[in-house]
Each structure stands twice: as structure tokens, then as C-alpha cells.
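In the laboratory, one determines a bound structure by crystallizing the protein with its ligand and collecting diffraction data. In a computational setting the workflow is compressed into a single prediction: the sequence and the ligand go in, and a structural description comes out. We illustrate the idea with farnesyl diphosphate.
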Amino acid sequence: MIVPNHVAIIMDGNGRWATKRGKERSFGHLEGSKTLEKISLYAFKKGVKVLSVYAFSCDNFKRSKEEVDYLMNLFIKMFKTKMKKLKDKGIKIVFSGRKEPLREDVLKAMDKISFDTKNNQNGILNICLNYGGQEELIDASIKIANDINTNKIDIENIDKELFNKYLYNDLPVIDLLIRTSGELRVSDFMLYQMAYAEFYFTSTLFPDFNEEEFDKVLDAYDKRDRRFGSIKEN
Ligand code: FPP
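The predicted complex, in C-alpha cell form:
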């Protein structure tokens, strides 16, 4: 079976999952955080090497202060305590996104977990937090323009590989994108890395996404015919 090297997940449907049960949206985020822990451990066990997850988009700051504060506090709690199993399994945790306007205590918790796992070799969990795909391309372009201005690089040397190094993290291309909750869109997630990704959409709300369904997704991926713009050879 061919296991995708880099899987990306848009973890959608936490709010609806909670509302359906007559609970606050925050309850859905809490359940979603448990699902993330389970699914990431399982994905690495199955042989996935890089897992990117959409934790918070730049646009999510438009939500109520109450929900944003809840999520930020949940992130801190996850980074400080709950991600221990991933650390122990040798998973390196990296972040993609802008620092501004994240709170100081969130940035500190992000720095700490990145530092503590920086030498881990068994897989990479890329947490996209205060992330936007268009913002990432703009930020990369600004850095490239600065490096051209200061003669660090030449325009002629810019190619896909070099461009990738200017993104928030120099990660391999995404092989498989999963989006839960039935929405059929990309929502500004990892646009550059997504160029040849296979898409898998499921109506399952993220807190209900489990190992069994992940296996189904892997089976479906294994049956896809990836051609990268070429034609199939016999
Ligand atoms: C989208 O569902 C989900 C989010 C904006 C938050 C995702 C966060 C987690 C899964 C928590 C754990 C994450 C980390 C990295 C520790 P939604 O709120 O848009 O759901 P809805 O579409 O049903 O309203």
C-alpha cells in the first residue's frame, strides 16, 4: 500500500458538533483537540512522515473574543501538557503562520514546544496557527525581495525548490488533503504546497473523525492514479 508522505487536514466542524448536542462551541474545540491527538499519533504510526493541520486561520480572528480566547487557551494547554505523547514518539512540532497579533503567552508556548522537539526525527507535525495561504505567499515574496535587494540571492536562481525554502517551513509537497464536515473548499490552506494534492472530503464532523475512517482515507488514496500532469505509462 502506498502511504502518503505528507497529509494535510482541515479540521472542520467542531462548532456544529457541539451545537448539535446543545453545547457551547468551545466544547467542540475541546473534543477536536482530543481527536487531533489521536489521529496524529495514528497517522505517524501508519507511516505518514509530515502532518499539517489547520488550527487557526488569520480570518478566525473575526470570531467572538470569547471563542478566540478559548481556542488560544486550549492551544497553550495542548502545547504545555497534552502533546507529550507526540514528543515521546520523536515527533518534531513546527508552526506555520504569522506572529502578529498572537498573544505573548501563546507565542511562548509555541516556542517552547518547537525548541523541545527540534531534534526529533520520527515525523513532523506542522501546526498552522494564525495561518493564511495567501499571507504565506506574500510573506515569502517579501523575504525573497529583501534577499534580492541585499544580494543574498539572484533572480535567476528562483525556482520551485528555492521558493519553498522561503515558506514558513521547508516541507515536502502535500500528497493528500482531508477536509471534514462536508465543506468542499480549500479555505486558503497551504496553497503552494497543495499543487498536486489528492483531495478527500468527508461529511464527518472533526470530533467524530477516527482511526477507522483514517484507514478508509488511506485506502482511497492508495487507489488514486497520480500522474502529476503526465500520462500513464503501460
Ligand atoms: C474549525 O471548526 C476548527 C477550528 C477553527 C479550530 C481547530 C482547533 C482544534 C481542532 C483544537 C486543537 C488544535 C491544536 C493545534 C491544539 P469550526 O469551529 O469552524 O466548526 P463549524 O464549521 O462547525 O463552526
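The domain at 6-132+173-222 is CATH 3.40.1180.10 (Undecaprenyl pyrophosphate synthetase). Keep in mind that any predicted model is a hypothesis to be tested, not a measurement.
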